[in-house]
Amino acid sequence: MSFSPLKSQEHFFDPASHSGFLEMRLRNIRRKLEEGQRRYSRHKRCRDVEEMSSSVQDEGDGSEIREFINLMKRLRPSAENMSSIKSAMQKTFTWRRSWISKHSPTMEEILQEYPRFLDIPTLLDTEFGKMHQGKGDLFLRRWEASIMPKLKAVAAREKGDVASLVEGMEDQTDDEKCYIYLQQAAVASSLAITQLIDFVPAGSTIASLYNASQDPAQSTQPQLVCIGHLRGGSQQYVIVGKSDKIAIPLDEGLACAVDKLFKLYWVCNLAYPAPLSSVFSFVEYIYNLPMSTNRRAKVLELISKVKSIN
Predict the structure, then answer these.
(1) pLDDT tens digits for 56-112?
(2) Are strands 223-227 and 197-200 parallel, antiparallel or unpaired?
(3) Residues near 142 by Cβ (< 8 Å), separated by ≥ 6?
(4) Residues 40-61 pLDDT 10s
(5) 256: which residues sit within 8 A by CB, 6+ positions away?
(6) In terms of C-beta density within 10 A (0-12 exposed, 13-18 middle, 19 or more buried), how is residue 133 classed?
(7) Is residue 3 scored above 80 in pLDDT?
(8) For a 10 Å CB count at each end of the chain, is N or C smaller?
(9) Residue burial 179-198, b: 16+ Cβ < 10 Å; e: rest
(10) What is the C-alpha separation between 187 and 26, in angstroms, rounded?
């Protein structure tokens, strides 16, 4: 009696018909999974809520948490109050993350409850760093020192528009270079860079940024607005949520502003606008975070090319 390796393989799994012992076994396992186990992202989110709920007791009872939340709302964001504000944020972290994960409040509701995120943007860094231990500054550590040079090397190998992006960059400002490489990271959507950052004339007031009529074609999610121009060093970046009339002025360059915007999405548990999914998926890669969305083929291709650069 002869032995056929092909028949043996088909017994375990036949790729043509998607049948066989292995496929049958996997179907049986899937049937036994609870709803929260069927997708890794949902399972992880449910597990996080359970862990946070069980550890809320370590931070004190609800009345004590409310005292710290009220304290943060009352304290002015001044240097003498900074220690008390940071301490209160630390004591309410688990309570806050559990509330956001369980109840999915809007960004407006979150910032009404924790308004210090608005006037002390560095609290976004602290919050994100506690959510992802050891990764709070990973984007800024890697972006200019490692990722931008690799993106330049990748672009040098390409032809057409991608290659032209990096030509004549020697005389450009740091923010201009950053903007160009963000364009390169937006490979999956030509609209991404315009959804990420908008430009308004120098001298525009911050109030005018969110009081402007909302373009129905634009995303309602928060984005960056640059008051002024990339060249000249006189620009200011502001995170603007027009739908919620929210503005967070920033005193840093473009790379730091993009980092803050990305962290706001995670801190407030916001969905990425479709045009920005490619850019933020690439930022997730830089942060070494698990994929929160299905990365498009062009993004995966760019990540593969970046990884290939020594």
Answers:
(1) 444 456 789 999 999 999 999 999 999 999 999 999 999 999 999 999 999 999 999
(2) parallel
(3) 286
(4) 223 333 344 444 444 444 445 6
(5) 140, 250
(6) exposed
(7) no
(8) N
(9) bbbbbbbbbbbeebbebbbb
(10) 36
Amino acid at residue number 173: T
What residue has token string 């992802």? 132
Extract the tokens encoding 111.
Answer: 């910032």
Beta bridge partners of 199: 226
Whether 228 contacts 236, CB under 8 Å: yes
Asked whether 280 and 262 are in contact (CB, 8 A), the reply is: yes
Residue ranges covered by each domain of the chain = 5-32, 57-131, 138-308
The residue ranking higher by pLDDT, 14 or 253, is 253
Q: Look up the pTM and report it.
A: 0.78
